[in-house]
Amino acid sequence: xxxxxxxxxxxxxxxxxxxxxxxxxxxxxxxxxxxxxxxxxxxxxxxxxxxxxxxxxxxxxxxxxxxxxxxxxxxxxxxxxxxxxxxxxxxxxxxxxxxxxxxxxxxxxxxxxxxxxxxxxxxxx
Amino acid sequence: xxxxxxxxxxxxxxxxxxxxxxxxxxxxxxxxxxxxxxxxxxxxxxxxxxxxxxxxxxxxxxxxxxxxxxxxxxxxxxxxxxxxxxxxxxxxxxxxxxxxxxxxxxxxxxxxxxxxxxxxxxxxxxx
Amino acid sequence: xxxxxxxxxxxxxxxxxxxxxxxxxxxxxxxxxxxxxxxxxxxxxxxxxxxxxxxxxxxxxxxxxxxxxxxxxxxxxxxxxxxxxxxxxxxxxxxxxxxxxxxxxxxxxxxxxxxxxxxxxxxxxxxxxxxxxxxxxxxxxxxxxxxxxxxxxxxxxxxxxxxxxxxxxxxxxxxxxxxxxxxxxxxxxxxxxxxxxxxxxxxxxxxxxxxxxxxxxxxxxxxxxxxxxxxxxxxxxxxxxxxxxxxxxxxxxxxxxxxxxxxxxxxxxxxxxxxxxxxxxxxxxxxxxxxxxxxxxxxxxxxxxxxxxxxxxxxxxxxxxxxxxxxxxxxxxxxxxxxxxxxxxxxxxxxxxxxxxxx
Lengths: 125, 127, 359
Known about the structure:
heterotrimer; A: Beta Polymerase, domain 2; four-stranded mixed sheet; about 15% helix; globular; B: alpha+beta; Alpha-Beta Plaits; three-stranded antiparallel sheet; 4 helices
């Protein structure tokens, strides 16, 4: 059994950058960014770790919200943000490396999103 | 700084027998627990469909009407889940891997289980 | 300014065991920038969780990776057990540690072999894999599968190892350790290998930490992160030393993995010594309702499983963050400024497992 119980703090999308900055200044490392579809909203978890202390920031967004990129503070975040865009169709503003939907090439566009496009690769114009 | 560190191992390997087996000529390694392929005792299967529901790769299809048990060997991931959950223990794990095929096909086995005439006995006893 | 050219590298390349594509921006022979792309083998594992019951998803979670399969299964089970408040019997926890460490041995030996192959030491490659075969034999004797063990289930393990077998395993470990010692001496001492790996693909300690490196990639740069130290499972009851290396180059990462083999052997010995008798599983009923982030140390680094259930037999979300995904940004940093001929060695030094990265 893991001894650690992860703590999760919900934050507003607008305050995200500020909160992430606090984590960066506190010497936390970025563990992962994780998006999940809950009904018709998306829950995005930003996980940080310092000395095995695991902490989460959670924002809840709708499909048409544009979220700010944290790749300015954590350079390596681009991989998670592109993944989030390619699988869930979430628009991320200001990524340092933007693959424009080509990190994961899937037959169905945004397969994990609320309304995945049903166009297959062959049907695409 | 060290040179020729590998020489000892290389000479040892050169003088010893091969570590590999000549596979088709010699049989492959097997252990009593090896998961090879699933077999069924068709005379005991009660067509309950547990194996079909519990199969993570949906390789098993059971038909109650036609009394058949069908498995797609190429879909089967040999996870042993059906063997574990079978209520009458009529499924077994054979240690031999299923033989290679050149075309996709399913294996169809007719279930020969006949339900014992239990209720009638009861009737007789109560009568 | 020299003319820049772009050389595509991968996804199919003789030295790459897995399909990753890199666009290398070159100035003469020097790599100035790298753009990595993955996404050739996305299988949609995380979507499958909505279609399979949580008890069967163990088998699917385990098949995320073909090398560290057991740890994926065990981590998933650990997460579900946390959500459902299940206390796993102690014997099962020890057995999980034993199999996890065998997985680590097999994965590290596989990697050492592939790494030797990447710098052209064919003989060493074959030798590493010969020792790995001994480990796989033990796996098959105890679980029934060579690489996909399938011996973990929610609430415990599916198979017990008899105490006589455990003793035999411990005796076998002595021979294996001797062979591994011969092998690692070559990796750590041989002059030509040192010459090939020293100062190739440097990653500073700060970069490793801030770019999120994990596992041997981080420890090879001197960042002491090892999730086993959090004491999940039975790890809390076992003693082991963290292996780190301060050089931060390909040699450092190789040295960390080579020495971790002995840590794993030691952990297995301790676990076999301390394993209590008792039941190996408990009955599980109900369905998970809640969420949990569970973390474990894989041979490649830190593994995160995020599980969310809603009280039905089907989970809402399972997210698998594999160590290679988080090791890609550090890889990009390592490759910037290296020579073109060093690219294959550097890519292999993070032990890329792209198939499990894409799930």
